[in-house]
Amino acid sequence: MSALPEALRAALALAATGVPVLPLRRGKVPFGNCRSCAQTACGGRPNMRVPGPCTCPAPCHGWAAATTDPAAITAPAWARAWREAAAVAYHPGGAGLTVVDLDNTDATAWARANLPATRTVPTTRGEHWIYRGAMPSANDVRPGVDIKSTMSYARWLGPGTGATAELPDVVRALVVKEPRPVRPVTVTAPVRTSGGQCPHRTPAYLDRGIAMAEQRITEARSAVHATVYRTFLAVLSTHGRCGCLTDTHMQRLFTAAQAKGETARHCADAWTNALTTLGL
């Protein structure tokens, strides 16, 4: 039997510790979906933000393919990927971990001054600070700092040094953004108000409208892109005239759309097109 590829040996050793792994190709990115899974043919999620029902034996769907099962890791469908792999990645959230990815010396200096000491791993340009506990992932939470945990992957660069500390609130707070009002828009249609007060500022009314929009997107079984656009159009036609929508409301709709396979760019384009159609 031929020797196992170095990346595969490292992946098996890491998976044995309970850390889900996957191969990375040149450029430090996951291998693309196979033909059966391309273009959402399998029902999976091409943007890799939400795992679909796909049970493809190949390393498809990015971070969602990460596994600790040695039988899956060594399956024939993964063989080519391991032979061509440039690195091993892992799903931090799947292992109950969070990686604070510090991309430069300034970001590392900030971490040393503001974050509790924990296990650290040197990277090409900075460091990975690894904490025990999972949280939502986010990029650019501050200059040179990304959070990699749930629904994300990090490159395996070795065990690092130091004891792994509990995930602190100061790290969790990095992904929390205060709601900001969406820029008020002017339309030619009259705005129905009562006593000068916007009726949409009633929390229950607005929340119910957003929840119904989320449900409409979530329940779409076909023509998802068109459904997302029509839903954005309906929300903006009702709530987009007086500035009571916030970034939080918009993000809820974007999250629902991305869960159905829409990319962030498609969401932004659909939102902009809806604004343009309404003359907002």
Give a structural overview.
With 280 residues, the protein is of the alpha+beta class. Helix content is 35%, strand content 14%. The strands form two sheets. Strands 4, 5, 6, 7, 8 and 10 form a six-stranded mixed β-sheet that branches. The chain has a four-stranded antiparallel β-sheet with strand order 2-1-3-9. Strand 1 (21-25) and strand 2 form a beta hairpin. The longest helix is centred in the last third of the chain and has 16 residues, at 203-218.
Could you describe the largest sheet, including whether it forms a barrel?
A: 6 strands, mixed
Protein structure class: alpha+beta
Uncertain residue segments = 46-51, 179-196
| Helix-strand sequence | HEEHHEEHEEEEEEHHHHH
Strand runs, count? 10
Helix percent band: 25-40%
Strand content: 5-15%
